[in-house]
Design a protein that fits this description.
Blueprint lengths: L1 E9 L5 H20 L2 E14 L2 E13 L4 H12 L7 H22 L15 E3 L4 E4 L2 E7 L3 E6 L13 E7 L3 E9 L6 E7 L3 E6 L3 E6 L1 H19 L5 H33 L3 E6 L12 H8 L3 H9 L4 E4 L17 E2 L2 E3 L5 E3 H13 L28 E5 L6 E5 L1
Parallel strand pairs: 10-13, 13-14
Antiparallel strand pairs: 1-9, 2-3, 4-8, 5-6, 6-7, 8-9, 10-11, 11-12, 15-16, 16-17, 18-19
Helix pairs in contact: 1-3, 4-5, 5-7
Length: 415
């Protein structure tokens, strides 16, 4: 497995010409690919709510874009972009790769209805530098701008992150107007990894570890931070018409504070989880919280919108291996007989005699699916296409863990 870390470093280069020309080059690449894009009609099914949980369905024809990706097209595109290009040729390859990345991102949002059928534009100034344009010696990096004419030199030995990435391989760089983004990678072999299941809830992460048992990570402080700043922001929005310029400055200030405090919380949480379980593979549910908005109340949807499950997974994935499983019915399937269960005041009881906390049940079932074992029982059909069948024995939780973000370690409490 490869671990990749990215750090920002300021520079004092005069790279304005390179940034401007690369931006034009990138836009030319996007234009060429867009002009050769093939649009095909496809029937798509939609629905709208009539009343309660009743829906009206209808079908429309939609145009789906398919970008040209043949080697012949890419070769012709490269030759076109090389005309009148005075910098190193490898920047052209980088621009083509970036153009496809931008268009694929646009296509994904277009299919979800978040973008219109309008060509994306390269508005930001940056340059993606391939490793073939760099020469690395210890902490010094020499970047070719024009072959045998102009180069940029960089030394990160005095930066705060130097000790963390000492001996790591330097990857692609991104040059911006005032700073540069450095990427470092390292191949790591994971042997004897323990899999642990994680059930994401509004106020907690519930983890099942086969040795340590049930582990509860309290997220109430995270929601308190979000709610506090949301109240301030909502109050300012109600006054925005009276003093638009002043309120706009305050809104920008509090949006930034809200983001920074949440990021700080999540970074500390990811560090503590990776230290507590350094030899574990984290198994998460493949959740889509936007589908959860349909049946919830306004208050519940507001709380749900504050959830940061994807960010937690993203930050953890930089430090530990992460896998995903099907989230269907993990909190409502009996691990003994496979029957459907209903929750009453956070507890689930089955006719077979099984009784447990609903959040523990979710974490335990996610753990089981992460092992590749199906949830057993005739009444449950929760299998993913690649899940083998199997039987399951219930394991009782051994401990509960609560997180103190002001401290450095976890505190285990016997359950």
């Amino acid at each position: 497995m490869k671990i990749v870390l990215t750090y920002r470093m300021n520079h004092n280069w005069n790279a304005q010409e390179l940034l401007t020309e690369y931006q034009k080059l990138l836009q030319r690449a996007i234009d060429e690919i867009w002009e050769n894009t093939e649009w095909k009609e496809k029937l798509v099914k939609h629905r709208y709510r009539i009343e309660g949980r009743k829906y009206k369905y209808y079908t429309t024809a939609r145009l789906i874009p398919y970008f040209p990706k043949t080697n012949e097209f890419k070769r012709e595109l490269r030759n076109k972009l090389l005309r009148n290009w005075v910098f190193a040729k490898h920047y052209v390859d980088s621009a083509i790769k970036t153009a496809y990345s931008i268009l694929e991102s646009w296509r994904k949002n277009y299919l979800k209805g978040r973008r219109k059928r309008k060509k994306p534009e390269a508005k930001r100034k940056f340059v993606r530098v391939k490793t073939t344009l760099m020469k690395v010696e210890d902490s010094k990096i020499r970047i070719t701008v024009k072959p045998r004419e102009e180069c940029l030199e960089l030394d990160y030995s005095n930066e705060w992150f130097y000790e963390r990435v000492k001996g790591w391989k330097v990857g692609e760089l991104i040059i911006r107007e005032n700073d540069v983004l450095l990427t470092f990678s390292k191949e790591v072999e994971f042997t004897g990894r323990v899999k642990i299941g994680v059930d994401c809830n509004l106020m907690s992460l519930d983890i099942y570890h086969p040795e340590k048992g049930w582990i509860k990570v309290d997220l109430s402080e995270l929601h308190r931070i979000a709610e506090t700043y949301d109240r301030i922001i909502d109050g300012l929005k109600s006054l925005q018409r009276k003093a638009p310029k002043r309120i706009s400055r305050l809104l920008k200030k509090y949006y930034s504070r809200r983001k920074n405090r949440i990021e700080d919380f999540l970074n500390k949480l990811a560090v503590q989880l990776s230290r507590e379980f350094p030899d574990a593979v984290f198994i998460f549910e493949d959740l889509n919280k936007f589908k959860m908005f349909e049946n919830g109340s306004r208050v519940f949807n507001r709380k749900l919108s504050r959830s940061t499950w994807n960010k937690i997974v993203q930050k953890l994935s930089y430090r530990v291996p992460v896998e995903f499983v099907n989230p269907a019915h993990t909190s409502s399937t009996c691990p003994r007989c496979g029957s459907r269960l209903k929750s009453r005041k956070g507890l689930v009881v089955c006719r077979c005699g099984f009784k447990a906390d609903r959040q523990f049940l979710g974490a335990f079932n996610v753990f089981v699916r992460g092992l590749g074992v199906a949830l057993s029982g005739d009444e449950a059909n929760d299998l993913l296409p690649d899940e083998p069948g199997g039987e399951l024995r219930l394991v009782s939780p051994k401990s509960v863990v609560r997180v103190e973000l002001n401290g450095r370690t976890f505190t285990h409490i016997l359950s």
